[in-house]
Amino acid sequence: MERTGSVNADPGPASDTNGRFTKRRNWAGFWVLGLCNNFAYVVMLSAAHDILIKQETGNATSSTQATLTVGLQGGNSSNSSRYDCNPVSTAAVLLADILPTLVIKLFAPFVIHKMPYGVRVLLCIVMASSSFLLVSFSSAVSMSIIGVIFASFSSGLGELSFLSLTVFYTRDVLEGWGSGTGGAGVAGALLYSGLTQAGLSPRVTLLIMLVVPVFMFISYFFLLVPPSTLPQWRSREAEYAVVGSEERQQLINEPEEEEQHEIPTPVDRSTGPLTITEKLHVIRGLLRFVFPLGVVYFAEYFINQGLMELLYFPNFSLSHAEQYRWYQTLYQIGVLVSRSSLCCFQFRKIWLLSLLQVLNAVLLFFAVLYQFLPNAWLVFVIVLYEGLLGGAAYVNTFYFISKETKDRHREFAMAASSVGDSLGIALAGAVSFPVHRYFCDL
User: Fold this and answer.
1) Which positions, given as ranges, span the membrane (predicted)?
2) Burial of residue 202, with CB atoms counted within 10 A of its CB: 0-12 exposed, 13-18 middle, 19 or more buried
3) How far apart are CA 337 and CA 321, in angstroms?
């Protein structure tokens, strides 16, 4: 009796074990991809400016870049403002880093299906590696700026591609991706600061970070277990052509008496590429997700780039530079925690998160204007909470887009909706300029 049915029972547990192992591999693979994709974006600007300080040539451009670096470090520019602030807002650097990403996210979803996933990943790896090399060996301001643009291009292309890639896997990989992108902020800042603090030059530190694109390559091509439906080395159009040919051959081979009961037109239509009309229809349906996400990131980066530098408490135990660094660190910790929370809970009402983030921005705006906060401890709590809201909005937006979008539209929807956060960030950078100037002129 013990042997009865054992032949049929054995494959079940083994198959289940293999399935769990595959899911864990894919989760870990997307975590590493999220970390590597955002890593260069996190560290590139501060590294570029550190390099530029060592390239002082006495010209006006070098002086401007050095002044901007001091601003990023929370220094004073010896102006007559009642605020210890720089005349050049840190939003200038933010715009330089986000605009290439924004352009890619706006236009790439309409044509990116022509490029296979394997080619996209290799392009991201090449661009990220080039950014590290260009900035580390730069001998002119323009060369460093090109390096920053390469990092932005790699990050933008990678984000929309990997979000689209999640539709070929179980939905839990979104949690791995979100957690990895959150970890990039903390890991990137700590690793760069730690290596330079240990005495390594910015150039050597950036060359060490060339290992990050290598990890992306290993994670995508060796750690992930790609499904058979993944268009790895051929475009979506080529895949549709093959599928359509197979379906037409199948219809030809079927008996004639069954053909009169067949209605092949809907099948042919569903396996073809999305038309422009369909894509615009999908985008219209995505607005309920993209708009709240954009508002969250607009308020978030308005705080980070327009107000955070001005939240200085001179009688606090930490210097201005130290206060600014802790603001950024706590913010990144909040993002990491909330982007890793998808396994614990999901929150559908993204509009509520956007409202709470706007309230944060309004509160800190008036705190800068009237200086009523007693010390930095309250700001520490607020920026941690700010990071929690931003990270939660990001992962929940893409989770519910993946869950509520039709199978045929999901891949395009995941790519197109990635523009929401970048658009909010770019608008925040533009608005932060006049706000920062207003406060510094007081």
Assistant:
1) 28-48, 88-108, 120-153, 173-192, 204-225, 282-303, 350-370, 376-400, 412-433
2) buried
3) 25
Q: Buried (b) or exposed (e) across 9-30, using 16+ Cβ within 10 A?
A: eeeeeeeeeeeeeebeebbbbb
Lowest mean pLDDT among 41-55, 237-251, 277-291, 354-368: 237-251
Give the pLDDT confidence score for residue 306 in this predicted structure: 84
Would 1 be classed as within a structural domain? no
Give the mean model confidence (pLDDT) for residues 58-73: 41
16 in a structural domain? no
Residue 32 and residue 121 share a domain: yes
Amino acid at position 284, single letter = R
C-alpha to C-alpha distance for 432 and 302, rounded to whole angstroms:
6
Q: Which domain holds residue 299?
A: 24-235+273-440
Assign residue 423 the CATH number of its domain: 1.20.1250.20
Total domains present in the chain: 2
Residue 7 lies in a domain: no
User: Which segment of 7-21, 70-84, 298-312 scores lowest on mean pLDDT?
Assistant: 70-84
Q: Are residues 223 and 353 in the same domain?
A: yes
Do 259 and 325 fall within a single domain?
no
User: Cα separation of 414 and 158, whole Å?
Assistant: 12
Residues 29 and 74 in one domain: yes
Q: Could you give the angle at which helices 419-440 and 276-302 cross, rounded to 10 degrees?
A: 30
pTM (whole model) above 0.85: no
Supply 276's token pair.
């422009």
Is residue 204 domain-shared with residue 331, that is, in the same domain?
yes
Range of lowest pLDDT (221-225, 323-327, 337-341, 361-365)? 323-327
The Cα 232–Cα 76 span in angstroms is 51
- Mean pLDDT within 235-256: 51
286 and 156 housed in the same domain: yes
Percent of the chain surpassing pLDDT 90: 36
Same domain for 148 and 159, yes or no, is yes
Query: How would DSSP label each residue in 42-65?
Result: HHHHHHHHHHHHTT--SSHHHHHH
pLDDT level of residue 84 (50, 70, 90 thresholds)? low
Q: What burial class does residue 347 get, using C-beta atoms within 10 Å of its C-beta: 0-12 exposed, 13-18 middle, 19+ buried? A: middle
Q: Is residue 191 over pLDDT 50?
A: yes
Measured CA to CA, the distance from residue 158 to residue 32 in angstroms comes to 12
Q: What is the pLDDT of residue 9?
A: 46
* Sign of the CA dihedral running 177, 182, 185, 191: negative
